[in-house]
Amino acid sequence: MTGLLYLEDLTVGRRFESPERQLDADAIIAFASEFDPQPFHTDPAAAEGTFFQGLAASGWHTAAFTMRLLVGSLPIAGGLIGAGAEISWPRPTRPGDRLRVVSTVQDVIPSRSRPDRGQIVLLSETLNQNDEIAQRLVSRMVVPRRET
Amino acid sequence: MTGLLYLEDLTVGRRFESPERQLDADAIIAFASEFDPQPFHTDPAAAEGTFFQGLAASGWHTAAFTMRLLVGSLPIAGGLIGAGAEISWPRPTRPGDRLRVVSTVQDVIPSRSRPDRGQIVLLSETLNQNDEIAQRLVSRMVVPRRET
């Protein structure tokens, strides 16, 4: 059992890996119908003739799915609180893909004005079952310091 | 009735505004229960004692909700296809907030290798009913050129 993580625990290079979880066509279509209703995300037949050449998850679905995997595998004290991020989708997420997230601490920045907290920069790569990168996320997260 | 937009139509400074749409507590809790199950997104009472000091939407929910507003208000030919983005959340989205998205074309980049397409850089600010910025998104989108 790992305890909760504070800024002092999150040294540069520390690595976290989530379990793998499958994303199915039904979920892709349901998410997109609500948030990103475009044929390449909602209609397998119509998707064939598009940029994606087949059904693909909304990038925001891949992002939300990644968040779910992060919440289960990165036990930061106070929770996962993002201030901002850079995100890219080097390749589409397809129905049946099994995704996992590998995260690495890239920077640790104590706050100058708030001695009780800081930020980390975290690289989170969302990989599919072929170890191909479906999403690259570099996020800044607010992290509390251990009480001294 | 506006026609579909091609790269040639998307000049720097061109502006698009979505209709306003309300985000309710039920939707905030449902989204977070599936994708971002942390107390400040799922439990109004427990949220009081957290960083957010009350229920707040997951940032990924604000992002997905923004996408829904963009899909309805930015008729790019071929659809809205993001290659990547920078995203930040200057303030939380709260239950009952009425959000709208104001987007401005910041750059237009014809592809050197593919004469049939290009990219735009689009700033999309998600504003609440008090004109406060809940999300700032700068995205790169793939846009087709008009056939000549």
Please tell me about this protein's structure.
Chains A, B: InterPro entries: HotDog_dom_sf, MaoC-like_dom, MCH/BMMD. Chains A, B: It holds the Pfam family MaoC_dehydratas. The structure is a homodimer of 148-residue chains. In chain A, 22% of the residues lie in helices and 34% in strands. Chain A has 148 residues and is α+β, with helices and mostly antiparallel strands. Chain A has a single domain (7-144), classed as Hotdog Thioesterase (Thiol Ester Dehydrase, Chain A, Roll). In chain A, strands 1, 2, 3, 4, 5 and 6 form a 6-stranded antiparallel β-sheet that branches. In chain A, 37% of the residues are buried. The A-B interface holds A 31, 34-40, 50-52, 58-61, 63-65, 67-68, 71, 78-89, 142 and B 31, 34-40, 50-51, 58-61, 63-65, 67-68, 71, 78-89, 142. Strand 3 (81-88) of chain A pairs antiparallel with strand 3 (81-88) of chain B.
CATH topology of chain A: Thiol Ester Dehydrase, Chain A
Percent of residues in helices of chain A comes to 10-25%
Instruction: Provide mean pLDDT of chain A, rounded.
Output: 96
Count of helical regions of chain A: 4
Taking the sheet with the most strands of chain A, its summary is: 6 strands, antiparallel
Judged by helices, strands and strand pairing, the structural class of chain A is alpha+beta
| Cα-atom radius of gyration of chain A | 17 Å
Globular, elongated, flat, extended or rod-shaped: what is the shape of chain A? elongated
SSE topology string of chain A: EEHHHHEEEE
Distance between the termini of chain A: 23 Å
- The count of strands of chain A amounts to 6
Integer tally of domains of chain A: 1
What is the beta-strand fraction of chain A? 25-35%
The oligomeric status of these chains comes to homodimer
Largest interface: A-B, 34 and 33 residues
CATH class of chain A: Alpha Beta
- Spans of chain A of at least 5 consecutive residues whose pLDDT stays below 50 are none
Q: Write out the CATH superfamily name of chain A.
A: Hotdog Thioesterase
CATH structural architecture of chain A: Roll
Domain MaoC-like (chains A, B): 12-112
Pfam families (chains A, B): MaoC_dehydratas
Organism (chains A, B): Amaricoccus macauensis
Protein name (chains A, B): Acyl dehydratase
